[in-house]
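Notes taken during the Thursday session

The instructor put the following on the board and asked us to keep it in front of us for the whole hour. The protein is Membrane protein. We were told not to look anything up and to reason only from what is written here. First, the residues (258 in total):
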Amino acid sequence: MKKLISSSFRQIALAGAACFLLLGSGAAPARAADTAFTPAQRAEIVDILRNALKSDPTILSDAISALQAKASAQKATSALDAVRRNKADFGESNTDVVLGNPHGKLKVVEFYDPRCPYCRKVLNDLDKLVASEPDLRLVEKVIPVLGPNSVMDTQAILAAGLQNAYLPFQKALMADPASASTDRIRRIAQHVGLDADRLLADMKSPKVVAAASHNLELARSIDLEGTPTFIIGDKEIIPGAVSYDELKAALARLRKAG
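Then, after some discussion, the predicted structure tokens were revealed:
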């Protein structure tokens, strides 16, 4: 049979590309493949790919990894586009609690769930970060993603904000290991000097419910998958409980980007 593709490197590359054209999801890729190759070429490509995978199975895993990386990059680009379109709701928000410099140029947003152990883990690092970065404006967005108990704690934190005690209540609540309950919330509220009856009433107020719902809508707009998640300016999104050093490095990149 006449060789349709001369070099082995090109064979593998072409086979890999054709494989995803032929086997990719949806009808459009298949139609594209039909117009790009003759039946004889397609048969040879399949044979090349089969032989290549036998000799080096990493070819397929590398191709899958590349596709996953491309999908992740596209997702991050889409999320950052949403951040850029809605600056007033993200880094420039004036309806959320802001840590650090209210007029800081290094704008960071943290989405967190008060019952998330990883969110609790980064609390001290965030205090340290704010203390070390005089130009940091850190917007805190509390969201309930871990069920009814998270809804209760989220509403309690937002209600504490109506008594100008968001941060002391947040820290006390997230440090308390007891099971979620209204008695626990009342005890913590009294401990930090709040009007517990008012806080419990405010938890169900339209203002608190709307604030929690709005934060959830913003989280969905960036396809948030878990907490904590950090939005660094409008340049990058970092999911997970990253270390203090990683956050410092992200701020250095943001500062350099201007």
